[in-house]
Amino acid sequence: LSFVRNLTQGRFAAVLVPTAVSGARRWQLFAHNDATARIDSFSVEQGVQGLFNTQGTRFYTSPDPVYRDAVFERSPGTCPFTNQDLVPVTSTEGHAETALGLTGANDAHVDLGDPAALRFGGKAYSIEAWVKPTAYDRPVLSRGGEYRLGLDAGGSLFLAHEGAPTAVVSTETVPKDVYTHLAATFDGTTAKLYVNGKLSGSGAMPFTPVTGAGTLIGKQAAGTTAGLFEGDLDEVRVWNRERTAAELADDLNHRLIGNEAGLVAYYRFDEGSGATAYDQSDRALHGTLKGDAKWTGSDAPVGDHPGVRRDSFVLKGRTVESGMSAVIYHQQENV
After folding, report:
1. Which residues, at least 6 apart from 125, have a Cβ–Cβ distance to it below 8 Å?
2. Could you tell me the end-to-end alpha-carbon distance of the chain, in angstroms, rounded to an integer?
């Protein structure tokens, strides 16, 4: 149960719930997180021994949608129709709900302030996001000039650093009007760019720290029209370590728990209302929607993790002072 963090005074509850699959059940845990003052809700697959299967049962199918109904395997392999590697089946449960919609005008962005956790000072870091651009030459995430991740005028992904003579640019372009997973990693010396989990560019880059800069999603510090993202953003993840290609490919299609090693900020953008983008990590680095930033429906291919699923919530006007309880309400009807 190491995935349950910052729990004190027995403020949790656990129930075992049925699923739509015969013989399969999941543990549902509710735990108060002292660090964020929110209730974390965990859904964990029950293992064969009755306890927890945190990796979950994964299934694999053809990479070609034409053959997905005919290919369903319990382990990795090769598609008999395409001779390509099988791909994990993406859960349709809890699929990406809402995303951040940015108009590219009227200062639409999310302001994260200037938390120390997002000042990397030349050390390793990684940034990920699902993007659905409607225009190019736009930023995805930046902290002043210190580090800037975005799309250039030709639609390629780029990462720029303060003091670097040139940016590192991807060889692959990002299409408009469809979701693409983008990632940039930096090990302190070399930057690497990934498009849909595939390495698409790398190069050595210096890093010059900047003081007094804010971290912004969908905006560069200048705030001009070309400095604002136009399109939809979803599942923004920031890490204080270099993620490997295998790690990026392994979880780009499912949600994180929120307390993975090195994760310093995690924005699902599933709020759907209000002016706050909640950080789903333990650091609670919540962002504020500015200008014309809005919530919009998301079709990013991001589903629940097959093993551990986590959400967090608050009960307005109430605080958790003692232990919690939970009950199952089940009703079955003929329809």
Report:
1. 147, 185, 186, 238, 239, 240, 241, 242
2. 39
Please state, in angstroms and rounded to a whole number, the distance separating the CA atoms of residues 200 and 189: 17
Distance CA 311, CA 303 (A): 13
Residues in the chain: 335
The pTM (predicted TM-score) of the whole model is 0.81
Most confident of 31-45, 88-102, 195-209: 195-209
- The span from the CA of 118 to the CA of 265, in Å, is 8
Q: Taking the domains of the chain in order of start, what are their residue ranges?
A: 98-303
Q: Look at the block and give the residue holding tokens 């804010």.
A: 214
Determine the pLDDT at residue 96: 66
DSSP symbol at 65: G
Between CA 109 and CA 230 the distance in angstroms is: 10
Tell me the CATH number of domain 98-303, given options 3.30.450.150, 3.20.20.70, 2.60.120.200, 1.10.10.650.
Answer: 2.60.120.200
Cβ-contact 200, 175 below 8 angstroms? no
